[in-house]
Amino acid sequence: MTKTYYIDKFEQIIEIGTTFGYNWYRGHSTVVGELTPCIFRKEYTSEIYLALNPNPEFRIATDFMRKAPSITKTLPKNNNYLEWLFIMQHHGVPTRLLDWSGNILAATFFAVNNNKESDGEIWSLLPWKLNETHGFYGLPLLSKSKIVKFLSHEIFHNNPEQLKEKYKLELIPKVPLALQPPLKHSRYTAQQSCFTIHPKPIAGFTIPETITDENYLVRYIIPKELKKSFEIKLRYLGVTYYTLFPDLEGLAKTIVQQEESMGWGQPRPLKYREYK
Question: Domains in the chain: how many in total?
Fold first, then answer.
């Protein structure tokens, strides 16, 4: 089980982020306790759902690919499966990608900004350690990685063994892989976006089951009573909907938040060691 600690004050967020300079972070506004991409969560994997909608990953992805050209012509080639995954994830389609950020403040924003009546959580991961399970240390070159190509192509393919042969892999990947996307969307840059790409889940091969050393994967709980104050501190530090979602909707949400918490008086100066 992943080692878990409580956060007691905002300064601990800063301490974590400045101690683990190469970690990635993921925030949940409730205590989920797992790291599962949307397409593999209960709403898409229950027996009732699958009985009515077999293979939802394939169906949703191909439906998006079929209809997207009616809206825009700026789309990847049909065989650029990874780029299609990035586009789907960017627009809210459930995929096998899981969002992370290189910025702990961005992850904290997602942990505290909703579900104020529930505790939130932040996961901290050293991505290179995850990729060691695939036989290398670091992040893959997307255009060259056979594992990335397999995992992104698998969605559109019904024969994993055949696909394994196509990409000359010794084994079908079972463990997620950490990767960084091309920064083609302003949101990716603003959020310092990174991803893990996941095969179909197999017991014993999830991220928490693969990385059991707290030096490389750890979870922090943010108590619900701290969420509002953390949200305000993040806003004062410039971490808002507007900065993380740099569009008109993000701007509007930030302005609404500011108005909801309006009430201001100038604090007394903070006095430190005096300069003479």
Answer: 1
The answer to whether 199 and 169 have CB atoms below 8 angstroms apart is no
218: burial class by Cβ within 10 Å (0-12, 13-18, 19+)? buried
Domain range enclosing 52: 4-241
Give me the mean pLDDT over the 139-166 stretch: 94
Residue 180 in this model has a pLDDT that exceeds 80? yes
Segment 5-28 mean pLDDT: 97
The C-alpha atoms of residue 35 and residue 219 are separated, in whole angstroms, by 11
Q: Are strands 120-125 and 24-28 parallel, antiparallel or unpaired?
A: antiparallel
* Residue 269 structure tokens: 């100066």
Helices in 176-272 by DSSP H: which ranges?
186-191, 207-210, 227-236, 241-244, 248-260
Record the tokens describing residue 262, joined without a space. Answer: 């309006």
Per the domain annotation, does 261 fall within a domain? no
272 lies in a domain? Answer: no
Q: Taking a C-beta distance cutoff of 8 angstroms, is the pair 190, 247 a contact?
A: no
Q: How many CB atoms lie within 10 A of CB 200?
A: 15
Q: What is the CA radius of gyration of the chain?
A: 21
